[in-house]
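Many introductory courses stop at the sequence. We go one step further.
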Amino acid sequence: MARVLTPRAEDFPRWYQDLIAKAKLADNGPVRGTMVIRPAGYAIWERMQAEMDARIKAAGAENAYFPLFIPESYLKREAEHVEGFSPELAVVTHGGGKQLAEPVVVRPTSETVIGEFMAKWIDSYRDLPLLLNQWANVVRWELRPRVFLRTSEFLWQEGHTAHATREDARAYARRILHEAYEDLMVNVLGIPVVVGLKTARERFAGATATYTCEGMMGDGKALQLGTSHELGQNFAKAFDISYSSAEGGREHAWTTSWGTSTRMLGGLIMCHGDDNGLRVPPKLAPVQAYVMVVKDGEGVREAAVKLHDALRDAGVRVALDDRTDTPFGRRAVDAELRGYPVRVEVGPRDLAAGNAVVVRRTDGSKSPVPVADVVGAVLAALDADQQALHDQALAFRRSRTTDVATLAEAIEAAATGWARVPWSAVGVQGEAEANGQGVTVRCLLRADGSVPDSEDEPDLVAVLARAY
């Protein structure tokens, strides 16, 4: 292949920007920090949405929609929340040519407005749990934007729930963390995430606990791919989300919130991409098999159409490229850039021998396959390459993760990857010191790798890294 991307090893950030542009995934928007998601990128996001939406609904949540504009006073009701988001807020002061009586905030997240309506809708313990999710856009004014990773406006889902007990709220926040987020990221996106507890310094503004899914990118840095929060009764008290208990008393609810966003697209690119472009895991790919007519010849186009239809009938998401007026090499490069898992190349020479060529994006292999066997070969390749991408990413993470004993060693190891260090060797003071050198505590784990309930548990392991 002709070199169309800056090599990852030479300049990883430039490679990332090159890939987004050349694969036609997105463009920068007209306002600094905004982005235009192009059809190729949006098709992947739609697949992420569909897979995530199914998991959220399986967990019992229902979709709703809440306003983009939130009264500024709502945010001020929960002190930690407004303090945490103040630097990122976009505030509207004028509308219809007049100054507004009260400024309104363009939603950075919806705990406050949804809390207002939860208080209205919940009366009795019979109304609980209330499990809501919305697909929306949010605005957080970003000082150092990067497409998909940090933009002033992005797309996401945000879930918000209310429960009768702290135990029920915690169990639900954990259920979403594992059954929706971790399951999607590992089994569909092929990204082996570390799931853990955020420290008090890193948790969501207004939360009592934040759980996270952290993925390692191709340069050894970490990316937070999704978070689930226990909000305790902080928002319930601020918005009077209360209910009549079975015993007849009045109690405040316990609430949660949780979200994933178009940042997952950036994570997909940086975790699986290579010097030839994107590599999309087959379960996620909008186009799993790309049937290409190499050049015109007797029966070639007809054979390509038959293979396309046979793959479609076998349940494969398939597309046909018969644009023989465009050079084949250019079309093949574009297919590599976009990361189609399998290409089926149909040309006169191979067809004369009764074959088509099956090209696998994950390892670049090219194999002549009898036309009658193409569907089976494609299905086998899709299964194998879904696992292969996950396994490659896991092997890379393990190779770039170092177990150390001290904070100084952890900061040094974070120059090239992740460090695992006893939390007792870091602590609050050590975390501040690490932050001063561009290193953060990504999450805390128990010794067995499970998610702790509190950072005060004994013998916890801290994962430190540089992050996006």
